[in-house]
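Support request from a user on the community tier.

User writes: "When I paste my structure tokens into the form, the page sometimes reloads and wipes my input. The last time it worked, I copied everything first. Here is what I submitted, just in case something in the input itself triggers the reload:"
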């Protein structure tokens, strides 16, 4: 995500907020108890355990946690936008070797903290990748985002082995935590396959999805699986084409699917010396994706998950080091979404919109605008031009409650 900066940066200024305490609007229902991150190996670090436990203590219901790289190959050491579990390797004869050591650390932490994972099936293990280039990326904030696209984004070259891996993984989790518990956790296939996370074609993704979903259902018949978690579709022809083609494939082939998922993100800019989060683009993403879903009447009964929803990334904004007041957009987002899509909700078109039909999956079908990456060291973060983000309960509570917080450079 890029942030445009107005060169005419002004000095800090005061913002006045008027609160009409004598005008109640109803009970406040927290919408932001979904959290996600790229680096799964931070999960079981001391800071990770502390943060996940604090999130549970703050929430009236278990927080939902979504992490990338759960099947990525590597040494298990975290890095920026990178993680690995080395769950799948092959011996000298090409036979699969499963190792759940790191997977167990991650999911043990979720269970101990009282979290509910949204289990993401991805990404391609090195032994199943035929990518012509390095397997691992070494992305840094100054690099082009496209440099994250390396071997882990390639389609699995042997879908039989891939399906066996998913089935074995699901059975292992069921044996460790109980079939009823694991069946209650939602599963998703991949992340943003129309973006930098997938180098295959749309038909290849659809085939991989079918193999993954059917493998999961063999192990856990009552488990729920969905996708495709495509990018925001407003003014994004690639995302629109991908989502529409995937939905057509699901309908034509009667693929197993229990919920639909897409992403919606804002377009933050610095305008006349202050941060403008670009909520309009976020709402247009939602509107465009829902319109595409409505083209398929056979799928309108399914819940919809907005897997990533935020007006913008705080870290990206801080890189510009503005002296500005950050005003929370979340209450406005809730009001505008209901206003923009109220007719859809009333007429039954995509009436499963997540702000209303939260219980369809036994979970609230939402994710916070706060996209928190678990802390790195102060030294590393300052070197990257970003202040350290600490997992204090007070800061988290403010963000979850939608209270504006002043940023300092």
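"...and here is what came back when it finally went through:"
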């Amino acid at each position: 995500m890029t942030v445009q900066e107005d060169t005419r940066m002004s000095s800090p200024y005061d913002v006045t907020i008027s609160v009409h305490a004598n005008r109640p609007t109803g009970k406040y229902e927290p919408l932001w108890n979904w959290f996600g991150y790229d680096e799964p190996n931070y999960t079981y670090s001391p800071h990770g355990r502390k943060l996940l436990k604090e999130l549970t203590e703050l929430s009236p219901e278990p927080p939902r946690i979504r992490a990338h790289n759960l099947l990525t190959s590597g040494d298990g050491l975290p890095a920026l936008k990178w993680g690995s579990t080395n769950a799948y390797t092959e011996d000298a004869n090409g036979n699969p070797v499963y190792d759940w050591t790191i997977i167990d650390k991650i999911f043990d932490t979720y269970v101990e903290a009282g979290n509910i994972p949204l289990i993401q099936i991805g990404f391609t293990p090195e032994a199943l990748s035929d990518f012509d280039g390095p397997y691992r990326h070494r992305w840094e904030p100054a690099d082009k985002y496209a440099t994250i696209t390396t071997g882990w984004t390639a389609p699995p070259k042997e879908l039989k082995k891939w399906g066996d891996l998913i089935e074995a993984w699901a059975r292992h989790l069921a044996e460790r935590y109980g079939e009823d518990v694991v069946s209650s956790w939602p599963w998703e296939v991949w992340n943003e396959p129309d973006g930098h996370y997938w180098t295959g074609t749309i038909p290849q993704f659809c085939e991989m999805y079918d193999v993954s979903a059917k493998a999961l259902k063999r192990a856990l018949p009552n488990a729920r699986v969905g996708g495709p978690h495509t990018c925001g579709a407003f003014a994004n022809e690639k995302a629109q084409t991908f989502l529409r083609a995937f939905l057509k494939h699901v309908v034509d082939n009667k693929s197993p699917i229990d919920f639909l998922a897409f992403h919606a993100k804002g377009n933050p800019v610095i305008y006349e010396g202050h941060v403008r989060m670009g909520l309009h683009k976020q709402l247009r993403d939602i509107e465009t994706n829902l319109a595409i879903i409505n083209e398929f009447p056979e799928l309108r009964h399914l819940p919809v998950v907005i897997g990533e929803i935020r007006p913008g990334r705080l870290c990206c904004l801080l890189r510009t080091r503005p002296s500005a007041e950050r005003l929370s957009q979340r209450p406005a987002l809730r009001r505008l979404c209901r206003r923009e899509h109220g007719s859809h909700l009333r007429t039954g078109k995509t009436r499963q919109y997540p702000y209303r039909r939260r219980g369809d999956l036994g979970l609230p079908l939402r994710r916070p605008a706060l996209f928190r990456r678990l802390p790195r060291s102060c030294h590393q973060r300052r070197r990257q031009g970003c202040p350290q983000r600490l997992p204090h309960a007070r800061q988290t509570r403010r963000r979850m409650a939608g209270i504006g917080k002043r940023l300092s450079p």
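Agent notes: The reload is a front-end session timeout and is unrelated to the input. The first helix runs from residue 46 to 58. Residues 1-9, 315-397, 399-409 have pLDDT under 50 and may be disordered. Escalated to web team.
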